[in-house]
Write a structure and sequence with these properties.
The complex is a heterodimer.
Chain A (H helix, E strand, L loop, with lengths): L22 H23 L18 H26 L7 H14 L5 E2 L2 E2 L15 H25 L3 H19 L5 E2 L3 H8 L5 H19 L1 H11 L1 H6 L4 H27 L1 E2 L7 H11 L11 H20 L4 H29 L1
Antiparallel strand pairs in A: 1-2, 3-4
Chain B lengths: L3 E12 L2 E12 L3 E6 L5 H8 L7 E6 L2 E2 L5 H7 L1 E4 L11 H5 L6 E3 L6 E2 L1 H15 L15 H14 L4 E5 L7 H16 L4 E4 L3 H7 L2 E6 L2 E6 L8 H9 L12
Parallel strand pairs in B: 3-10, 3-11, 6-9, 9-10
Antiparallel strand pairs in B: 1-2, 1-4, 4-5, 7-8, 11-12
Classes of the chains: A mainly alpha, B alpha/beta.
Chain lengths: 361, 258
């Protein structure tokens, strides 16, 4: 381009190739490194491969059962992590989804019960006959509604009373858990309809994976290509700038937390249906695992930075760790210790990377 | 139809007991460039914040483009045609140049309410046009603001005002943190606005810059206007302006400011 104005700070270009090394690549490398490590340890200690088929079959290269387990065991918390990702990108935090899962599972399961179990009346019945054997859409709508309501309360508290998200969602975390226990006086709720149980067990057990991946793709597109996504990043990046630019920050925050609540509700459906029962203690600590997945995936707790691709990779790292330790026949205690170490290491690495990027300017 | 674009009558702002701005009567005509000068705490930024809807005035009237206005938010002011480059820049660090230019008024391909689909291509093209129009040079508009120098940030903030046809542009110390070249670039943008006949309120401490760029200087002192100087037509020197700023002199008609 001809330079007719010689002073200034460089040319005016749009170069789509000239993009920074995306942070997600680092997370992907970490994931591959982790897999490589388990392969190596497996080969050294047991002479077995972690991910690849070691039974000598000819129709497959991968150990499909393990691949399925890796994704399946993070799917339910992964759905929550999708909500946590957008909350954290908007500069907030949500501690309540675990408890919302418990509460939603209880309430939704009450609308999903079947009247007759092996020819006898349902021993765990919550409502009367006329509320049994309802079409599956009813418990789904109920779950979405409960999640929506809980998320809306979170968002409204944060946006309009100006209390920190940590406190507002901590309150919801405690209150929703209490409500979950109150709902059936602590009794588990069981025996759902076949339709309902197919949500978590259908498609040969792949249903939760498909729901998780589908939602992840949907929300990736929403965060990247819609006004909603742009405003979420803007608010997390500089809330004052967002406000001065005319973004309705309060309304947007309510929406962000409401969506997070609905995703927790969806996660509850999958969980309750997969387990064929609902208990008040369901989902304890899920919110922290979800936050850990996002943090490992490179989403900055300061807000404005990261993507759902990172979160999905973070979730996979989680799945690989759990499967890897089982594969090496190590105790679950080690898993948690290593998980804790990785969470901290991910944040330290990210900050170190940020400082280096900052000093380059 | 008058040629007055902005007028304030008895514009006053108190923060509790602090009288940050008292009885400001101010007039800006179409195509006119006016500088607001004054010491720190003289009420310059307070004055701007009342006009642009960032804060709500204690009393007084604002007449913009012929009608009395009361902006609840900066967006209201912007919709009415007042573009402001704030001292704090109001840019989102984690977003790139087009994202920031169109923040809060994104171009969309498909309108789905909050989930409307962004038209990235159109926003990029209009960003390039705006930057070329104002002579702003940014190495790569896909760069995040976080990775840019102070001058580049300032240019993005100013280009943002130039992207949208505004009726009035307000700049709050646009060159305070800039180097020589970057300052020259910003001043070029101001000249471009002058040629285009777009009115401007410039808050600045830089005497040379003010005498280079604007038609008129309004001096604030301790929350009041104390002088209104037509520097293009009257014989006013920098020393005079300094005298007004420090309180050594007060113009006839503004004695109550002393």
């Amino acid at each position: 381009m001809a330079d007719h104005n010689s002073h200034g700070t460089g040319g005016l270009v749009f170069d789509s190739k000239k993009r920074a090394w995306p942070n997600e690549m680092n997370v992907l490398l970490a994931l591959l490194l982790m897999i490589g490590l388990f392969e190596l340890l497996g080969a050294l200690t047991m002479g077995q491969s972690f991910l690849f088929d070691s039974d000598g079959r000819f129709d497959t290269i991968f150990n499909e059962a393990r691949l399925k387990i890796i994704i399946l065991q993070v799917s339910i918390i992964g759905i929550i992590a999708i909500g946590s990702t957008q909350v954290i990108i908007s500069g907030g935090i949500d501690l309540s989804p675990g408890s919302i899962v418990g509460l939603t599972a209880m309430i939704a399961m009450s609308f999903a019960q079947t009247a007759m179990v092996n020819g006898n009346p349902n021993p765990k019945a919550i409502f009367g006959e006329s509320w049994m054997d309802l079409p599956v859409i009813i418990p789904i709508l109920v779950a979405l509604g409960v999640g929506l309501l809980a998320g809306f309360v979170n968002g409204a508290l944060i946006a309009y009373t100006k209390i920190p998200p940590f406190i507002a969602t901590l309150g919801m975390m405690v209150a929703a858990r209490g409500a979950a226990k109150w709902w059936s006086k602590g009794n588990p709720i069981s025996f759902p309809t076949d339709q309902f149980s197919s949500i978590g067990n259908g498609l040969n057990g792949w249903a939760p994976v498909i729901i998780f991946v589908g939602l992840a793709v949907l929300f990736h597109l929403i965060l990247k290509y819609t006004v909603y996504g742009k405003h979420t990043y803007a608010i997390g990046s500089n809330e004052d700038a967002a406000r001065m630019s005319g973004i309705k920050v309060n309304r947007h925050k309510v929406l962000v937390y409401t969506i997070a609540g609905m995703l927790a509700g969806l996660s509850a459906i999958v969980l309750a249906s997969k387990n064929l029962t609902a208990q008040a203690g369901m989902g304890v600590m899920y919110e922290l695992d979800a936050i850990a997945m996002t943090v490992i995936g490179g989403i900055s707790l300061a807000g404005g930075r990261g993507s759902l691709v990172g979160t999905v990779l973070g979730a996979l790292i989680f799945g690989v760790i759990i499967s890897g330790f089982t594969f090496l026949r190590l105790d679950a205690y080690y898993q948690e210790m290593v998980k804790g170490f990785i969470i901290v290491a991910a944040v330290v690495l990210d900050q170190w990377r940020q400082r280096r990027a900052g000093s380059k300017v | 139809m008058t040629d007055i674009i902005l007028e304030t009558r008895d514009l006053t702002k108190h923060y509790g007991g602090v009288h940050a701005l008292t009885g400001a009567n101010f007039i800006l005509r179409k195509g006119e460039h006016v500088a607001i000068m004054g010491d720190n705490g003289a009420g310059k930024s307070t004055f701007v914040r009342q006009i642009t809807g960032v804060e709500q005035r204690t009393r007084g009237e604002i007449i913009f483009n012929g009608s009395a206005v009361s902006f609840e938010t900066p967006m209201d002011a912007r919709k009415a045609g007042i573009e402001t480059v704030f001292q704090s820049l109001a840019l989102a660090d984690e977003l790139d140049v087009p994202d920031n230019l169109f923040l809060g008024r994104e171009l969309v391909k498909v309108n789905l309410g909050p989930f409307s689909i962004l038209d990235y291509k159109a926003m990029r093209e209009r960003t390039m046009m705006a930057l070329e129009k104002t002579g702003v040079k940014i190495p790569n508009i896909r760069n995040k603001i976080r990775n840019m120098s102070g001058g580049q940030r300032q240019c993005v903030a100013i280009a943002r005002t130039a992207t949208f046809h505004s009726k009035l542009t307000i700049m709050d110390e646009p060159t305070a943190a800039l180097g020589v070249q970057e300052t020259a670039q910003v001043e070029n943008i101001v000249r471009t606005l002058k040629e285009a006949g777009e009115p401007l309120i410039l808050i600045s401490h830089n005497m040379r810059q003010v005498f280079d760029l604007v038609d008129r200087v309004v001096v604030f002192r301790r929350g009041r206007i104390c002088a209104n100087l037509d520097i293009k037509n009257e014989d006013v020197t920098g020393e005079d302006v300094v005298a007004y700023i420090t309180g050594a002199k007060t113009q006839a008609g503004y004695e109550d400011a002393a």
